[in-house]
């Protein structure tokens, strides 16, 4: 049974929009930390810098996820979606349903 590519496109588009929205909502958390000596104590500045570092790391993870989604859209357009990039075999539909960005079959994933 052929894969419903429109279904997977919709799932990917939804995931992409969610990541973009999360990045937009947390933009202020990634802003440079101001070091106003008079109004903020040293521990508060350290906490703010740690929060900023975590927000930046989360943003980097979202950018990696967005790049993966873009790569999956390319695989769909190139007719390569649903085939393992390592061995060329079909990827189980249930595996793709769980994560359409998966690019390897379960056997190659276990080897890797």
UniProtKB/TrEMBL annotation:
Pfam family, one: zf-dskA_traR
InterPro entries reported in the protein's UniProt record: Znf_DskA_TraR (IPR000962)
Annotated zinc fingers (dksA C4-type), start-end: 84-108
Keywords annotated in UniProt: Metal-binding, Zinc, Zinc-finger
GO molecular function: zinc ion binding
Gene3D superfamilies (UniProt xref): DksA, coiled-coil domain
Zinc finger DksA/TraR C4-type domain mapped to chain residues: 79-111
PANTHER family tied to this protein: GENERAL STRESS PROTEIN 16O, RNA POLYMERASE-BINDING TRANSCRIPTION FACTOR DKSA-RELATED
Protein name: DnaK suppressor protein
The species this protein was found in: Sphingobium scionense
């Amino acid at each position: 049974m052929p894969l419903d590519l429109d279904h997977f496109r919709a799932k990917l588009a939804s995931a992409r929009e969610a990541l973009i929205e999360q990045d937009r909502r947390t933009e202020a958390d990634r802003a440079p930390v101001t070091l106003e000596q008079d109004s903020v104590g040293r521990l508060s500045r350290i906490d703010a810098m740690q929060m900023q570092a975590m927000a930046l790391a989360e943003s980097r993870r979202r950018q990696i996820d967005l790049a993966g989604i873009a790569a999956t859209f390319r695989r769909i357009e190139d007719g390569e979606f649903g085939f393992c990039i390592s061995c060329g075999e079909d990827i189980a539909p249930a595996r793709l349903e769980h994560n359409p960005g998966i690019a390897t079959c379960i056997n190659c994933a276990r080897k890797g």
